[in-house]
Design a protein that fits this description.
Helix content: 25-40%
Order of helices and strands: EEHEEHH
Number of strands: 4
Radius of gyration: 24 Å
Shape: globular
Strand order of the largest sheet: 1-2-4-3
Distance between the termini: 57 Å
Length: 139
C-alpha cells in the first residue's frame, strides 16, 4: 500500500461480532441501514458511484444487525490506492463541512429590553440594549 488515508479508518472487529472479517480493508466512511435517512442513502449511493461501483477491491458489505435489521458499508481493499484516495477526499469534505456548520451560541434578546419601543423582535433586532444585559438570557 502506498496511499495512507487521512480520514478513512481501517476495519476493526467490533465487540460481540461474528461474521466475515475484513482486516485488509478500510471503511469508505459511509454506510446505510434500514432506518437511514435520505442524506445517508444519497451519500452511500454517491460514494459507490464515485468509486466506480463494486469491483474486486471495492465491496458493499451487507450484514444483519439485531437493532436496525441490516447495515451496508463500503469496504475498500488496502491495495486500491485510487479508490482509497477518492473515498478519503470525499470523507474529508464531509468532515470539514460538518465542522463548519457549527453555529456560535448567541444570547437571546427580547424587544421589551430595547430602546426602539417596538414590541416585535424583528423591529427591534438592531436596537441597543437599554440596561446592558438581557433578562431573558440571564435566566
Amino acid at each position: 500500500m502506498t496511499y495512507d488515508p487521512e480520514f478513512l479508518k481501517r476495519w476493526t472487529m467490533p465487540p460481540n461480532y461474528f461474521g466475515a472479517v475484513w482486516p485488509a480493508y478500510y471503511s469508505s466512511g459511509v454506510g446505510q441501514s434500514r432506518d437511514s435517512v435520505a442524506l445517508e442513502r444519497s451519500n452511500f449511493t454517491s460514494m459507490l458511484r464515485d468509486l466506480g461501483g463494486e469491483s474486486e477491491t471495492v465491496i458493499v458489505v451487507r450484514e444483519s444487525h439485531w437493532l436496525v435489521g441490516w447495515v451496508e458499508w463500503i469496504a475498500i481493499h488496502e491495495s486500491d490506492d485510487k479508490a482509497l484516495a477518492i473515498a478519503d477526499d470525499i470523507t474529508g469534505k464531509f468532515k470539514r463541512s460538518a465542522s463548519s456548520k457549527k453555529k456560535p451560541t448567541q444570547s437571546r434578546r427580547t424587544a421589551t429590553t430595547r430602546k426602539s419601543g417596538s414590541t416585535t423582535p424583528a423591529d427591534a433586532a438592531g436596537a441597543p440594549l437599554v440596561s446592558g444585559h438581557d433578562p431573558v438570557a440571564d435566566r
